[in-house]
Every structure is written in C-alpha cells, then in structure tokens.
Amino acid sequence: MRINKFIVFVGHIIAILLLLVANITDSPQISIISLTILLIALVVFCLQDFDGKLGLSLYFVSMVIFLCARPIIFFWTRDENWMCGFFSGEFIPAINAIFLSFVCLALGYHAGSRKIKVQIGDFGLTRRFADEKFAINKLRTYSFYLCVFSTIIALYFEMQRLAYALANGYVSLYYSYENSSIAIRALIMSRSCLFIALATNPPIKLAKKLLLFSAVIPFIKLIEGGRSEFVMIMMFIFFYLYTDRENKLENKITYKKMKYIFLVAFIIFCGMPFLYAWGFLRTDRSYEMRNLLDGAISFMTEQSGTFNLVGYAVRYEGKLPGINYTFGPFIDRILGNNYASFTVEAAMNTNQFGTVMTYLTKTYNYLNLYDGIGTSYVAELLYDFGYIGVMAGNLIIGYILYKLTRFKANSMFFQAIYFIFFYYFFNLPRMNILNPIQQLVSATNISIFIILFGISKKRGGTQGYGTIGEKT
C-alpha cells in the first residue's frame, strides 16, 4: 500500500514538473508525455481501492476515451497527425486543461471522502415506502410493466429508423430522417421506469432481465452509429451488478467481482475492432485493420474527436458570439432562443458551444448533412472561465462522484433520482456540465415520477398486486 502511494505521489510530481517544462519550452511532445505519466499514476491511484473508486474509475475511462485517447495513441504510435491539426500554442493549452481536469477530479473525489456529516434523502417525503411493503409491490409492478411497454414502443420506432437506414444509407439518418417525438419520449419514459423499478431493490434475476431488455435499443443505436446511449447503459449495468444489493461498496475484490471485470474487459476488447470496422462498412468506406489490437486502438482514436473541441476553445478564445456556453441551456431558455436546428441563426444567436463550433469548423456538414460534433464541458469551461473554471468545475464533479458512489437513499424516491443522475453522469465528458440536471428535471421524467409514486401511495385495491420476481 505504501509503495502504491509512493508511486502515485512521485508520478504526479513528475507529471506536473514535465507539464511546466512543456509550457516554458513550448514543447507539445513533453506535454503529451506528462499527461501519459499522470494517467499511469491515476491508474495506480484507482487500483489502491478499486471498489471505493469504482465511480471515479469509470468516469476516468470515459474521459480518456472521449478527450485524450487520440493524441496520446497517435503520439506513441508516431502518427504524423498526433497534434490533431493544432499548432503548439493551441495544443499545449488544450493538454493543460485536460491535465487539470484529471488532477482536480481526483482531488475533488478525495475531498468528498473527508468525514463531513451530511445525510441526503432523509427528508421524510417518501420515507414510508421503505416501511409499507405493499407500496413497494405496487411501485415495482407498475414501473416494471410501464418500462416494458414504453421500451416496446420505442423499439418499434427504432426498428423503423433502422429499416430506413438500411434502405437509404446510414448517412440519410442525419439529413432526411425525421425522428418521432413519441419515440424520444417513450425512450426517456423507459429509462425513468427502469430506474424506479431498480430503486425498489428487485430480485437480482429480475433486475438482470430488465437491464438486458433496456440495452436492446442502445445496441440498435450503436449499429446506426450512435455510441452514447450504449456506453452509458453498459457502464450503468456494470456499476449496478458490481455493487451489492444495498449499493454499498466493500473494500475488497471478490472472485465474483473479478469475473465481472474480466468479462466486461473481454467484451470491450473484442467489440471495439468490430465497431471500428462497422463504422466504415455501414457508410461504404474502405478501411485497414491488421489485427484485433490494431482495430481496438483505431476505434479508441475515432472516439476522441471531443479533444478537438478543447483545442477550438483555445483557438477561438474571445471570438464567439455567445454570452456564456457553460450555462447556455438555461440562458437560452430565459432569453427564449428557439431557433430551428442546423441554421446560421441557431449557430450565431444561441449559447450552444457544439452548435457554433460545428458551424465554424464543418460548415457544409452543419448546413447540408445536419451533422454536429457535439460538445464538452471541459471545452466550455475553458472558453468561459479559463483554467480556473476547468479546475473548479472538475473539483465539484469529483466531489459529486464520491457522494454518488457512497450514496445510500432513505427512500425509493431518492434512490430512483440517484440512478437517473448517475446514469447521465457517465456521458458528461462529451456533454454540457448541466446535462444530468436537465435530464433529471425533464417534463417526461417529472410526469412519470408523479404518476408512479402517486398511484403507489394509494392503500385501496391491494388484491392482485404481488411483487414481480417474488413468490406471493
């Protein structure tokens, strides 16, 4: 244990010193080396207490894949495009921001572990759900069947979307296919019902079936080219199954947990080359893949386009028309900015960082193919508030991550909210920092919570409502 702590400490010191040298000498090569050493030190840091740092470890994986895998892999494999088209004056500040993000995430997580007596969820609003078994039975029954029903509806529309792509080409999904609002709301509803059902602490066999069924639509979206939903549901499933039934994390790795780790690692390793090849095949493009490892590496570099957004935040510093991009969703709502998507007006008059960046860097795709490059809270914080904003934002996220992984709800209501918030947290590196809150307070989520928890409070009509998955 002391050796591991020593490695972590020395690794951080060396990485920080190298980053300072890189900034002084204007050397992008040294900046990449410093970031690599930092990531190695953070791996050792997480392995010191993998169970206790599971949430942080998964978040680090998401950060690496979306934000920095491309420049790091390209650099160490001697790819000539390892600077991703940026000059050293743009590349090094982008690396600085990502470096500070990792460090502050770890510091925020460590700060969260300090003994501060704060109880979350003990407000007495829905406390009686834990004591009235019949309310749990009803809530589990209603949420289970509504989850299945809404998933089937969403699956129907998703199959139509897939059929359209097969007939007209996958690129057509971006510029000529009109998504149904019913499908979008049905998918959100299925997620809400899933988390409410899981909040009732169902038998593990029932939970596995429900999670597997809920992963069908994200898998279809993955075939269509959408990766976010699949990544989020897979990470959530791993976290849910890895933790025990009361969502407590033990400070030891059991044989059962090791099976989960190796199984997930094997599936990911075998799946990445397939997904890399499929990304080319579905758009009739040629590709080269020498072996599985080469395919896995190529897949990871394909996902790290979000790094470019951090570089763009440096390149366009002080030149963009928005008021503030970090709080853009709320500002646009207050100002009533409601422009049609993929128009010049939407790019120049709203506070959406991904929108204006797509318009400026990929104008043709934006206006003609209705294609976007997404966003990243790191890029938004860097543009709006500089390094101070990046540090503060990631300190808060690290602190919240610790509280989420240690969270023990006193009611099913807060447990369901916890599941929703944690689910959307995994995709945060390529989203706006307020995205989990936006998802949580969406009209569909609020309606589902009011309906399901409302009808579950009723005491009458108890016959016929046994607990799904249990003998009654």
Compose a concise summary of this entry.
This protein is an all-alpha fold and 472 residues long. The protein contains 21 helices and no strands. It folds into three domains: 2-112; 127-303 and 402-456, no CATH class; 326-374, no CATH class.
Tell me what you see in this structure.
The chain crosses the membrane at residues 7-24, 30-47, 54-76, 91-109, 142-159, 210-240, 260-281, 385-402, 409-425, 437-455. It comes from Sporofaciens musculi. Keywords: Membrane, Transmembrane, Transmembrane helix. By secondary structure, this protein is mainly α. The chain folds into three domains: 2-112; 127-303 and 402-456, no CATH class; 326-374, no CATH class. The chain is built from 21 helices and no strands. The longest helix is centred in the N-terminal third of the chain and has 36 residues, at 133-168.
The computed structural class is mainly alpha
Order of helices and strands: HHHHHHHHHHHHHHHHHHHHH
Q: Main sheet?
A: none
Strand proportion: under 5%
Please bin the fraction of helical residues.
55-70%
End-to-end separation: 49 Å
Rounded to an integer in angstroms, the radius of gyration calculated over CA atoms is 23 Å
Unreliable residue runs: 116-134, 245-251, 460-467
- Count of the domains: 3
